[in-house]
Design brief:
2 copies of one chain form a homodimer. Chain A is of the alpha/beta class. The first copy, chain A, has one domain: Rossmann fold (3-Layer(aba) Sandwich). Chain A is built from 8 helices and 7 strands; from the N terminus they run αβαβαβαββααβαβα. A 7-stranded parallel sheet of chain A has the order 3-2-4-1-5-6-7, with helices on both faces. In chain A, helix 1 packs parallel to helix 4. Chain A is globular, with a radius of gyration of 16 Å. The mean pLDDT of chain A is 95. The interface between A and B is large, with 37 and 37 residues.
């Protein structure tokens, strides 16, 4: 029974996601759905990304969180338009939430909309929000077994950011194994090693974004 | 509509969870539901814990994962009875899954059953599996803002393990702030700082477990 209900919810979600995609296409907005575990470093990466692309790409952000507006406040400080969605305990963003949030943005002024999803490697992967690309942040400290343990999110992502790469020497993360597993799950995935502490990979990531808008 | 469905699912789950609790009580088994983000270090901590309590507490493990049996294989190598639950993409364990898994264990030989949940800071907190205690692993590398961002799981947990404490010098994690936030969310929560690299806190955690069986 649970599965049937889930299918209905997903069907409804996909319909709204397609409406979102049409709305974004009409306004020439490219949408990236940024996902990853709690603490993988999504918000810090987003802050550094927005600084990096400032003046080059006009961006806006939709922030998904269970309760607080902490992440949105961090983005707002950078002078970037941001809308906070609080899911009130919900484990993912869905297309209807993103639709409501996007309607409050001036889309005609935006080239790139980054949707930071709820920190979760499972549920967000199942809900299309109308994005053009999914991007997943995997931090080195989470361990190299994560791609095989949570394959769907990596299979669906156009790009995987191996974040906190500066902490590699302090962990037993096997970079070659992780890259191999990612390539097995998703042969054409783009992999970028990033660190917000050293700045490594942020130019490559900004270039990737500039290439898709 | 989604909320109504969710309530029905939770109501059914709670009923089975109570049946599980009665079954465990009858067999004198204490059950700990071990939760945390992907990569917070749950399985490594579990391995070290089982080594630590070996000969002192007779334990068994139920491993929850989306697809692989990797974690169960790691536990099996220690000679500890283990059952793998694959959720096939599902984001949490529920009481029915744990019931089926527990029925395949020789419960009369077990004092402590540790259920390692799916790596996820959101959904597992909502599903009682019939445990006596919830324990949440929060790794230092995830950031000190996680208790306020994911309050339910910390509110429900009898004990929080601040794991990978050896990485504290390489992060901007504010230990005092995290402890204060945890105490605000859950005034009586037990907080233990652990590291599987240095062995810090593992005795305190083993003593905590010995105290609840």
């Amino acid at each position: 029974m649970e599965i049937k209900v889930m299918k209905n919810i997903l069907g409804e979600n996909d319909k709204i996601a397609e409406e979102n995609r049409a709305m974004f296409r009409e306004k020439n907005v490219t949408v990236v759905n940024l996902m990853g575990s709690p603490g993988s470093g999504k918000t810090t990466l987003l802050e550094k990304t927005l600084e990096k692309i400032s003046g080059r790409i006009s961006a806006a952000v939709i922030e998904g969180d269970l309760f607080t507006a902490r992440d949105a406040e961090r983005i707002e400080r950078l002078g970037v338009p941001v809308v906070q969605i609080n899911t009130a305990g919900g484990c993912h963003l869905d297309a209807a939430m993103v639709k409501r949030a996007a309607e409050s943005l001036e889309l005609e002024k935006i080239q790139l909309l980054i949707v930071e999803n709820v920190g979760n490697l499972v549920c967000p992967a199942e809900f299309d929000v109308g994005e053009n690309f999914k991007a997943t942040v995997l931090s080195i400290t989470e361990g190299d077994d994560k791609p095989l343990k949570y394959p769907l999110i990596f299979k669906e992502s156009a790009v995987v950011l191996l974040n906190k790469i500066d902490l590699l020497p302090y962990t037993n993360f096997d970079l070659a194994a992780a890259r191999e597993d990612l390539s097995t799950i998703h042969p054409n995935v783009e992999i970028i090693e990033t660190s917000c502490t050293t700045g490594a990979g942020l130019d490559a990531w900004a270039d990737w974004l500039a290439g898709v808008i």
